Amino acid sequence: MRVALIAALLPVVGCASLPAASVQKPKKVEHVYIEPVTNRTSEEGLDVIFTRAADNAFYTDPRFKVDLIPVPDRTVVVKTTVDSISTFPVGFDSRDVARKYRMTIGVTVKLIKYGYRHPFLTFHIERYDFYDAYGTASEVEAKRKECMERIAREIFNEVGERLYVESAKEIQKR
Questions:
Q1: In contact, 114 and 77? CB cutoff 8 Å
Q2: Vertex 125 angle, CA 48 and 102, to 5°
Q3: Which of 141, 65, 149, 152 has the alpha carbon at shortest distance from 109?
Q4: Across the chain, what does the average pLDDT equal?
Q5: How would you classify the pairing of strands 98-113 and 121-132?
Q6: Which segments in the chain show pLDDT lower than 70?
């Protein structure tokens, strides 16, 4: 009776446990280190705005753990460079004065596994947004800075998505 019971339960119990040899590699990157953003434009303070946006994006994303000190062969370094910024008028009032502007910012992002020299992924992102020029000069400048912050948030949200998806592909190759 006991032998029949053991023989009947063996296939069910055997399927419930996995052998230690079948443990798979992690399918995603969890640990990131964010380098301060490099600004290659003539716009002052853009690096500060983008570094703050990068910190906010990665510290609030539950998929990533931000390392204060990178760990070799575990941490992915996110190195971002702001390459270009352009602003041009797109809306005019009845006196032909520019009142709405389109701002475009382009960045290059390199993802480097800490401890290695060359990036395993490099990509370019370009995003745009609009702001209006109604109000005093300081109000217009504040709207311009807010536009930069919105663009930076959009860019780093996409960087997080690409890091999550593309690094999973890279890990599966190995």
A1: yes
A2: 75
A3: 152
A4: 84
A5: antiparallel
A6: 1-28, 167-174
Q: Which two tokens stand for residue 87?
A: 């602003």
Burial 141-173 (b: 16+ CB within 10 A, else e): eebbeebbbbbbbbbbebbbeebeeebeeeeee
Run of H or E including 100: strand 98-113
The two tokens of residue 28 are 């995603």
Q: Domains in the chain, start-ordered, CATH in brackets?
A: 28-169 (3.30.160.150)
| Pairwise CA distance, residues 16 & 78, whole Å | 40
Instruction: Report d(CA 51, CA 37) in Å as an integer.
Output: 5
User: Where would I find the H helices in the chain?
Assistant: 2-16, 46-60, 137-173
Please name every residue paired with 98 in a beta bridge, in sequence order, or none if there are none.
Answer: 92
Query: Which three-class secondary structure state does DSSP give residue 85?
Result: strand
For residue 145, what pLDDT is reported?
97
Residue 11 Cα distances to 6, 14, 23, 69, angstroms? 9, 5, 21, 48
Residues 88, 53 contacting (CB under 8 angstroms): no
What's the CA gap between 46 and 82, in Å, rounded? 8
